[in-house]
Amino acid sequence: MKLIVGLGNPGQKYERNRHNVGFLAVDRIADEYGFTPFRKRFRGLVSEGRIGSERALILKPQTYMNESGQSVGEAARFLKIPEEDVVVFYDEIDLAPGKLKAKAGGGNAGHNGLRSISSHLGNDYIRVRIGVGHPGRKDLVSSYVLHDFAKADYDWLDPLLTSITKAAPSLVEGDIPRFTAEVARDLGALDETSPRAAGKTQPTKTPRAKPAAGHPAGERIAKAKNALAENLKKWMAKRDTNEGA
User: What is the pTM of this model?
Assistant: First the structure.
């Protein structure tokens, strides 16, 4: 069994915060793969189901972000799920909005949710970092992540969550490189079909220049036009003669 964790803060007040993008990701996965309704367990909300051939438990800790490890550690110990079978989705301010990275193990990079999980579980779980961007100043980080996504953010957020969901089977199978490649490929395909959404512009076709008068090609075109005009004059003169006969 895999334990799939989304990080965030409980309650409607925080529902659409950037800090809650982990909740948004696992909610999308639960909906897509027909998981059971969420219920209270392990100091969080849990939902069970299958992704491909793998059984999985989705967990949304309800202990607030900085105590997430209490919920994750309790669930992992009770279900006897090893660290390497735990996947954690969370917000990453050091990644540009819409970017994603995943890896097994590593540091916590100042993220309170990861720091708490590592203290209760260990450090070898899989981390899926969802970029939300940086406000530009360190003293603004807290208010930035605890603020709702802007309306414009959904132009990149919705496609990213959809691509993550499509690629989830590779993630639960433990193939992290394939998972990230599938997300990137799916987002790339969406970009190609929607240039404006991707911030791209359609290539401008450069009109083909007409050959200059002194150019050989220009001389050939001029001669052809003159010959056509002469033939047209002869045909009209012949027609007038026939009509007058």
Answer: 0.77
